[in-house]
Amino acid sequence: MAFAAIAFVSLLLIGIPIAFVVGLVSMGLMFDAGGARFMLLVPQRVFAGLNVFTIMAIPFFFLAAELMTASRAIEDIVKFADALVGRLRGGLAHVNIMASALFSTMSGSALADIATLGSIEIRAMETMGYDRRFATALTVASSIVGAIIPPSIILMLYASVAQVSVAAIFLASIVPGALLIGLLMMLVVLLARKYDFPRRERRYSAKEFMTISVDAALPLAMPVIILGGILSGVFTATEAAAVAVAYILVIGLFVKRTLKPSDIPGCMLRAGVMTSVIFMVLATANVFGWFIGLERIPENIAKSLIGVASDPVVLLLLIVGVLLLVGMFMDSGAALIVMAPILAPVAVSGGIHPIHFGIVMALTLVVGLTTPPVGPCLFAAASVSKLRIETISFAMLPFYAIQVVFLLMLVLVPEISLALPRMAGFIN
After folding, report:
1. Of all helices (H) and strands (E), which one includes residue 114?
2. Cα–Cα distances in Å, from 399 out to 136, 142, 155, 195, 411?
3. What is the pLDDT of residues 238-265, one digit of tens each?
4. How far apart are CA 413 and CA 351, in angstroms?
5. 7 in helix, strand or coil?
């Protein structure tokens, strides 16, 4: 395993894609354990990694987000966010956070948030007199809300890997998502007072507010349909994703008529490319997961960690430290797929609820999207804002402090994530 860890890091450092790194290391471990006999199992385990009904929701949710963007529904969402909070001191900063929160109910991805909203938000804030560094840092910090609130792709991956209820983990993410939004808005309030941020002086009339709300109502109804259908048992997460795509097609093509038939092939292509990246990692990681289960590696790690930290809170803090380090160098989705089979059994053995652990693990890795040296959200924001990574990272310091407070709250107060699924009867 020591040789495998060295090989893993070395292949990553020379730029080999994570899916192939996991696959090559896994095949090496399989051959070392059982020779050619075990190598015959590799294709079977690759297929088994993708032969899961739940993960079929992922391409549908990617496609739903692409169709939502192509139909220009995002403009209605930004206007609605501005109508709600634009009059506050630092209004556009609040709009940035609120728009990310609203768009996250459709995209499930932090990178999609920056790619779609980033240029709009940064340009608008800079025009209103905000410093570009602050505008970019806020856009990066608020983007991770997109990876928290349902339909979160990373939470769906955890549900698939750890074999927990998608409905329960989605429900468990709502309060943490709202908490992060609240913490970010509190920080903006403090900074707005200190630096006298501008606000929108013009008031919307009741008629204008009603028009904006009606325009935004149709796209914002999609998350209600998704969550409502899943939680009520009308359809599964995969069926909900397909319903979301059908809903957006009807709205875009026939109701608002902002989506052209010629836009659909491009949306499908982009969704297919994003899906293929995740599915390749899932397929190869299943080989790795099967091997570590065979070698009883999670049990051995559990014994070691529990021997060091028998208290569940201390154990979870140790795991968070490890995940923060991993998240600095690996994409959150890939890191979760690789690490969940190892750490989830450790957490459960230490007395941590699997749903609570899933929320903490996913959100810790999502924080890694915003941290150097390999934070994908930093690079995406740099390409949009034309700022250097170091400049954005320095401007992110107040938001890093908020993220640390957020993670500590999740670790120390499990009911933040467990209260809703417990009240709904999904967990005991």
Report:
1. helix 110-127
2. 12, 9, 23, 16, 18
3. 888 889 899 989 999 998 888 999 999 9
4. 14
5. helix
